[in-house]
Write a structure and sequence with these properties.
The chain has 8 helices and 12 strands. It has 283 residues and is of the alpha+beta class. Strands 2-9-4-7-12 form a 5-stranded antiparallel beta sheet, covered by helices on one side. A 4-stranded antiparallel beta sheet has the order 3-8-5-6. A 3-stranded antiparallel beta sheet has the order 10-1-11. Strand 5 (56-60) and strand 6 (63-67) form a beta hairpin. Helix 3 (198-205) crosses helix 4 (209-220). It is globular, with a radius of gyration of 20 Å.
Length: 283
């Protein structure tokens, strides 16, 4: 029987100094008519993205976050942000780039308990029931482009209010659930050679299998198994592209498939061509 106590999962979250004066370098609204990948980058600033319409999958380090309308993702400075698939066509977003304060940090959750002067803001925040967050994004963008003499001071003050509202969204009940699901995602991505059952993951987190299944489907609109297959096949594309001499059986083993035949079948079902055909197209 699996010993749960031996599994060490480190959850990294952003913690922010609410007293710091912030400087916004850019605030704007975008629409992606044909869809677009999130830029692959490591920024010296924080990047906040609000989804007005559509859906977008954005990675922070090895964790993928699927955003729907009225979701916010808080991408911490100094971390790797990127996308592996485009957002939906006609996706509309608002975004803010803001300076990193010396007291901001991106650390394991347990470390924050030692410092009460900072506040946790989860990477993804659901704001469907908080209209103030959307209004503050809009106001910040409007004031940023206004050319007013007091523009910087007003934008900084509005951003402080935005931090408070995002923190309140978490305290209203989203944090514990999202923290649990982030642990699930991290376990999956830290063990790419394995396929987990919902029971195995539920046992690691000391929750019921039914609770985990229901909450995961609610947030990601797919089952745990579908999510694992989807992300593993995305990683397979990268392996086929970056390591063209790697055998299919090795790729299958690296990604937890039973053998190369099961891997090839799943790959062709998703992409419409075999792994070998996919590799030949990129030669």
């Amino acid at each position: 029987m699996y010993n749960v106590e031996k599994e060490v999962v480190i959850i990294l979250l952003g913690c922010y100094n609410f007293d710091a004066k912030r400087k916004i370098s850019i605030a704007n609204q975008n629409i992606y008519i044909k869809g677009a990948l999130h830029p692959d980058r490591i920024m010296p600033e924080h990047d906040l993205v609000y989804i007005i319409e559509g859906s977008w999958e954005i990675y922070q380090n090895e964790t993928a976050y699927t955003l729907q309308a009225d979701d916010v993702i808080f991408l911490h400075s100094g971390q790797h942000h990127y996308g592996l698939r485009p957002c939906d066509p006609n996706t509309k977003t608002m975004f803010i780039h803001v300076n990193n304060d010396i007291e901001d940090c991106f650390m394991p959750l347990d470390a924050y308990k030692k410092n009460s002067s900072q506040f946790i803001i989860h990477t993804i925040i659901h704001c469907q029931n908080n209209y103030t967050v959307k209004r503050l994004f809009q106001e910040i963008i409007s004031v940023f482009w206004s050319g007013l003499s007091a523009r910087e001071s007003k934008v900084s003050a509005l951003f402080q209010l935005l931090l408070c509202e995002l923190h309140e969204c978490i305290n209203d009940g989203n944090f514990s659930e999202l923290d649990m699901l982030e642990k699930v995602i991290q376990i999956i991505h830290l063990n790419p050679q394995l396929f987990f059952t919902s029971k195995e993951l539920a046992d690691k987190l000391y929750i019921s299998e039914r609770t985990l299944r229901n909450k995961f489907v609610k947030l990601y609109n797919q089952t745990l198994y579908q999510y694992q297959v989807h992300t593993k096949l995305q990683k397979a594309c990268l392996l086929l592209q970056d390591y063209p001499k790697m055998k299919l059986r090795e790729i299958a083993a690296n990604l937890g498939f039973y053998d190369e035949f099961h891997f090839s079948k799943a790959f062709k079902k998703k992409y419409g061509l075999s792994p070998t055909e996919f590799k030949e197209l990129r030669v």
